[in-house]
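To make the argument concrete, we let one protein speak, a sequence paired with a row of structure tokens, as a model reads it:
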Amino acid sequence: MESTGEMVSLPVLLESNYRASTIPYRFPSDNPKKPTPTELSWINLFSNSIPSFRKRAESDDTVSDAPAKAEKFAQRYTEILEDLKKDPESHGGPPDCILLCQLREQVLREVGFRDIFKKVKDEENAKAISLFEDVVRLNDAIQDEAERVENLIRGIFAGNIFDLGSAQLAELFAKDGMSFQASCQNLVPRPWVIDDLDKFISKWGRRSWKKAVIFVDNSGADVILGILPFARELLRHGVQ
């Protein structure tokens, strides 16, 4: 059951001037009536994902007349993206990844879909849960604390690599299933593009936190195999 209460911003994030997106989509000097190259690249990325989302929607057996509604979604969302190419301030723009996701979800719900990935989420959850015990056992077997923390962080990255919002990865899941171990092995070597791991491990060793709030996805390997083992380690250190 969904809450009917009013949504409010988390005070901690307000105080830190947190922005959910740090990609520089546009600058003050950019023409507000013309999409920037970065905005266009993201619009095209979402446009390329439409066939995959339409196919997924067509197979939603919880929705009556799903194929027709899926086609309606594809047409409507395509129109919105074309509008944004002509006028980036249309539909609540200028566009960024968050807005493009919100508009896509809005159109899906307007035509009658609630969660077109419900079935694949259930499948992914089942596979992830079957691997959870081994992932936790592997982490617990690492005696060196710094090495164990790094392994937990790598697990978060590996889980998050699998993103059903990506058309290519969604198709890969449908074809080959999910391999968490493969995701861990395929991580790029350090140093990463943004790499504060050594600083984080140093702070971890000083037991710097009393409480923690973790924002997670609503299903999948990223939360079950990435975040839950990490949260478990926080609990073992007395963090609420």
In short: The radius of gyration is 20 Å. The chain has two domains: 37-115, 118-237. DSSP finds eleven helices and no strands in the chain.
